[in-house]
Automatic annotation (TrEMBL):
PANTHER family: UDP-N-ACETYLMURAMOYL-TRIPEPTIDE--D-ALANYL-D-ALANINE LIGASE (PTHR43024)
One Pfam family here: Mur_ligase_C
Family matches, as Gene3D superfamilies: Mur ligase, C-terminal domain, Mur-like, catalytic domain
Protein name according to UniProt: UDP-MurNAc-pentapeptide synthetase
Phylogenetic classification of the source organism: unclassified sequences, metagenomes, ecological metagenomes
Organism field: marine metagenome
Amino acid sequence: MIGERVDGHSFLGNVENSGASAALVSQTNESLGLQQIVCDNPLIMIGNIANAWRKQFDIPVIGITGSNGKTSTKDLLVHVLQSSYNVHATQGNFNTTIGLPLTLLQMDNEHSISILEMGASVPGEIDVLCRIAQPTHGVITNIAPAHLEGFGSIETITQEKGALFRSLENGISFVNLADDKVAGIKISGKKITFGLTPECDFPADIHQENNGSLTLILDSHDIPTGSQNLSFIKNSIAVTAIAVTLGVEWNNVIERIQSFTPTSGRCQVKQFDDITVIDDTYNANLISSLAALDYLKSFSGNGRRIFVFGDMFELGPTSHEQHRKVGKKCTELELDGVFTLGQNTIYTDSMINNGIDHKHFESHDELIHSLKEIVHSGDKILFKGSRGMAMEKVIKGVFAD
């Protein structure tokens, strides 16, 4: 493929040397012995090939999209369904018009179910992904102001994410009634509802135990999660609704939720001596950042609660205001420290008051140096920022020794 910065055809020699049997190209390199299959648009063609391959399999294919929690929900659903199925699933962030076809081509006869994450940064991409993948089931985790740079408005985001449900005329849509935007999407086929409301197929409630952990009460079943992370609980509601509908026994669902360990960078709790680090560095937008702050505040004990925050990207003209909202939340929660990094988090810093210790930094090295002087035993520290901010470098820099 020919990208904005790089022409993939320039790597055909490397492809041949790596042992590939053929390459899909829009222009040939006659100096190579590599078999080259010529087409007008390799991106469209790989989607067509993946769609033809997907049609060979008569198994449930679950599409997952949403503004937040796609990968976390996918990872948890994989873990739960592995108790009853041989699961094929998206690896990493292969959720695009390039990554999803490549994921589908990894499906084989041993798989009994497929879980496909679907991402979009501009309008029309979810529809394309659904036409390629032909999901039989789908869930939209939530709808929030993420990727506004590409979509422009929350209404456009709702229309885009809703393409998953519209593709399920002969399938099942799992609808989160706790999200008004999701609940308002027109459903083409069968609908199964869930959420923190009594009027749904999988009604949920949350109980906080004396130690601060959360117990999920779902359709009259108690699920002690051992977690204080409300986002994890919400993901568990969606995953349970899907798993039970697909025939997984309740006791298996409960055991798998309790045994799940989040992947690095996704609200993973780490201990460095007596310092608790919440590594939520994989990505950030407004809703996920506010939820992560609630998670930080929920930690028990006498130590300080500190937030280390990098820029949120792709927010368009609302970027400054969304960064301010994060700062306002920090003040409302009366955190002990807020330390920001980047260009846009200066607006977060501007909203910090109530005597909270705070400072803005423009480089990773400066932030790391200061944090080494600031943190001490008993602290609970949340690290978060968009992928491009690489906030995991700060964790490594502060705690590598």
